[in-house]
């Protein structure tokens, strides 16, 4: 075999092996500690302490303002009043909490000890000697931070931390013993003969206004005086309805337990309040007749009694039985078939 000829099959070929050693480098250790301005300049140290005290004081002011806003600016039943109360509570609570947060961060960065420490790995439970050293380190850290010498700073921090929980504790406690009458959720202002009206205009709806596939957001017809009252806002929220006109042949379930028909010529009306947590359901898919709640994706079949086909809701949407009066307007036969909204302790399903 010539020198240029490849070795035959099965002939062993050994390649020279080379060993490489891992290059090691020295542990750089902890870098040299750099002193801060507050470590070398007593005036800067005192100035930062005053800033932290002011931040804690701002937190105290925010907490007190939150309590004042809660008692002085109560929701009056109007949209503007509810919005004002919510904004004031949110802003004052934010000031209180942010004051504590910014003060804590500034305290840690400017006054507390920033010396670097290295702890070697050890077993889960350290030896008694190591534990004693750790405790000593903590003690030294407290001493080094000067907490014991900063009475004003300690007082400001304690005051801010003590006052902030009141911003949510007082509203929570004050609600105890409030109105727990769930009977008001069992009935709405819908009654026999009440006309269905468009939301928000209040214009009555004729059956002839709707074509197959039409969707309308509905409220009970009411006088202008009643619609301007505070009571209307609460009652309207319970009585909102979604009206859909289906092909009558597509409706699979539309009867009361007594066998009465609750729709009119394919027009069905159901509560808009999801039976999961009360979100407004209004996303209608015409091809499947499914109604989707945007909050948690509970899905209801409008052609089958608004029964749940998907999601966390555990009962169908209450149906509003409807008919038509002599003028061709859609009217309610009665109130909803059952309580609207989420389940509660008197109604588990």
TrEMBL record:
Protein name in the entry: Cytochrome bc1 complex Rieske iron-sulfur subunit
Membrane topology per record: Multi-pass membrane protein
Organism: Isoptericola dokdonensis DS-3
Chain ranges passing through the membrane: 51-72, 84-105
UniProt keyword Ligase, yes or no: no
Signal peptide span: none
Bias-annotated ranges (Basic and acidic residues): 24-41
Described purpose of this protein according to its UniProt entry: Iron-sulfur subunit of the cytochrome bc1 complex, an essential component of the respiratory electron transport chain required for ATP synthesis. The bc1 complex catalyzes the oxidation of menaquinol and the reduction of cytochrome c in the respiratory chain. The bc1 complex operates through a Q-cycle mechanism that couples electron transfer to generation of the proton gradient that drives ATP synthesis.
Polar residues: bias regions: 1-23
Entry's family note: Belongs to the Rieske iron-sulfur protein family.
Keywords per UniProt: 2Fe-2S, Cell membrane, Disulfide bond, Electron transport, Iron, Iron-sulfur, Membrane, Metal-binding, Oxidoreductase, Respiratory chain, Transmembrane, Transmembrane helix, Transport
SUPFAM superfamilies for the chain: ISP domain (SSF50022)
Region (Disordered): 1-41
Residues annotated as domain Rieske: 238-331
Primary localization class, coarse: membrane
GO MF: 2 iron, 2 sulfur cluster binding; metal ion binding; monooxygenase activity; oxidoreductase activity, acting on paired donors, with incorporation or reduction of molecular oxygen
InterPro entries documented for this protein: QcrA_N, Rieske_2Fe-2S, Rieske_2Fe-2S_sf, Rieske_Fe-S_prot
Cellular component terms per the entry's GO annotation: plasma membrane
Localisation per UniProt entry: Cell membrane
């Amino acid at each position: 075999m010539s020198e240029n000829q490849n070795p035959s099959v099965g002939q062993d070929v050994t390649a020279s092996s080379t060993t490489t050693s891992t290059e090691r480098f020295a542990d750089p250790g902890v870098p040299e500690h750099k002193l801060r301005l507050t470590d070398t300049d007593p005036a800067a140290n005192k100035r930062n302490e005053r800033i932290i005290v002011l931040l804690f004081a701002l937190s105290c002011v925010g907490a007190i303002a939150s309590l004042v806003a809660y008692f002085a600016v109560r929701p009056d039943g109007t949209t503007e009043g509810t919005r004002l109360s919510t904004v004031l509570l949110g802003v004052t609570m934010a000031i209180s909490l942010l004051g504590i947060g910014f003060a804590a961060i500034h305290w840690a960065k400017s006054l507390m000890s920033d010396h670097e420490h290295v702890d070697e790995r050890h077993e889960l439970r350290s030896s008694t000697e190591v534990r004693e050293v750790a405790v000593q380190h903590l003690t030294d850290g407290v001493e080094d931070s000067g907490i014991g010498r900063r009475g004003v700073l300690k007082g400001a921090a304690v005051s801010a931390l003590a006052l902030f929980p009141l911003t949510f504790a007082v509203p929570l406690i004050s609600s105890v013993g409030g109105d727990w009458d769930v009977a008001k959720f069992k009935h709405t202002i819908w009654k026999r003969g009440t006309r269905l009206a468009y939301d928000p205009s209040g214009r009555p709806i004729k059956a002839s206004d709707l074509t197959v596939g039409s969707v309308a957001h509905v409220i009970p017809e009411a006088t202008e005086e009643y619609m301007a009252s505070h009571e209307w806002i609460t009652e309207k929220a319970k009585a909102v309805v979604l009206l859909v006109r289906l092909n009558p042949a597509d409706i699979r379930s539309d009867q009361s337990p007594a066998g009465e028909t609750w729709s009119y010529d394919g027009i069905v009306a159901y509560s808009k309040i999801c039976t999961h947590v009360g979100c407004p359901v209004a996303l209608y898919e015409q091809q499947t007749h499914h109604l989707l709640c945007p909050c948690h994706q509970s899905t209801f079949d409008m052609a089958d009694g608004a029964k749940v086909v998907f999601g966390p809701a555990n009962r169908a949407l209450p149906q509003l039985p409807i008919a038509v009066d002599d003028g061709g307007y859609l009217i309610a036969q009665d109130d909803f078939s059952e309580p609207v909204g989420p389940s509660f302790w008197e109604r588990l399903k």
